[in-house]
Task: structure prediction
Amino acid sequence: MAITLTFYGQSCFQIDDGTNCLLIDPFFTDNPVAICAASDITCTHIAITHGHFDHFADCEQIAKKNDATVFAAFEICNYLQEQGHENNEPGNPGGRIEAPFGAISFTPAIHSSSYKGIYMGMPCGLIVEFGGAVIYHAGDTAMFSDMEMLGQIYQPDIALLPIGDRFTMSPEMAGVAAEMIGAPTAVPMHYNTWPPIEVDVARFAPKDIDVLVMLPGDSVELSEE
Ligand code: NI
Ligand code: MN
Result:
């Protein structure tokens, strides 16, 4: 079945095959580039890279409304449990959890993770195996050389990389990251949502990698290998 990848702005993506629908880093409320409200979203699963509001703020509402299974760091799942959401799959970098659509693995990310002043565990990237497709969502992170090894091990078809600088990578550093990972397609994210992370997306130009610039609301069909 066709797998559709939809971008909702900042680092929020949805992967949907008509049966399972995975939402990553939901951020609609207070997102200046959002095209819909959190209440408009339906999904079966949610994956969270880290606890910062621009990745996590709408998770509780959407998870509860949809009774969605949440994949996230141990501390984030504890927080959701305390808020009354029981359906959680906690993990930590290095771990892989099987899911009805495939699996989610947590990778390292060089960043921080807190929500409303609460420590939210290790920040993560995500390797999403969905049907036959492999998607690497890097979360918020600096570039690190192990990205090359992640590319070799997981062989992602597509890499979703933050390019907005200041909190993550510059477009040039993200270009180096994309080349190390080696996924044939790279999608820039985490830029131009607010002035502090405004960059010219044309600066993201990894060699021999197709750059797919998605605007909020854009969808693309992923081919299954
Ligand atoms: Ni962050
Ligand atoms: Mn962020």
